[in-house]
Design a protein that fits this description.
single chain; four-stranded antiparallel sheet; three-stranded antiparallel sheet; 3 helices; binds iron/sulfur cluster
Length: 167
Amino acid sequence: MGDSNLIPWSEVSSWACNACGKCCLGYRVPLKPDEYARVAKVFGTNVVDFGLGKVYLKHGYGNRCIFQRPTQDRWICSLQAMKPMACKLFPFRLHSKPVYRKGDGSDYFFKGRRFHIYLDPDCDGVVAGRPTERFAKQLLPEIVQIGMGVRHKQRYSTSKYISWTPP
Ligand code: SF4
Ligand code: SF4
């Protein structure tokens, strides 16, 4: 997931997660200290890897995140309540400066602050086009608040396929 092909939010019509599971396959998900503390308290330390001063969620079968579970033809995160911020934000990227150039279509203002928002085209849920009202005025504010750490609950920024019951 590099920065070279990120799409400025103003070129995106909408986004919806179809629970394809691609983003939980192969990637290393970093945990912030408080996220690690919460996960380790419930699941112990065997679900994480340590490396270069960072903590990552471990991979399980097939190089998938250890918390990913199959359900029919979808993949579901079983860590919902403790999902790390890196997972909550994907495929969105919040930057304080433009990745490409000034005026690249990434400017987004929230409560008087300027952010630069992009989407990772590796996600199958990204639809190119002119931003819908819902995308610009409901989804993006939620992403910004999650990125700022002032919101934890996901309403617009999560998949509709989130229900998962442990076997
Ligand atoms: S965020 Fe995108 S890549 Fe990840 S499961 Fe949803 S649709 Fe697939
Ligand atoms: S914690 Fe959940 S969303 Fe994040 S990589 Fe693992 S299964 Fe995917």
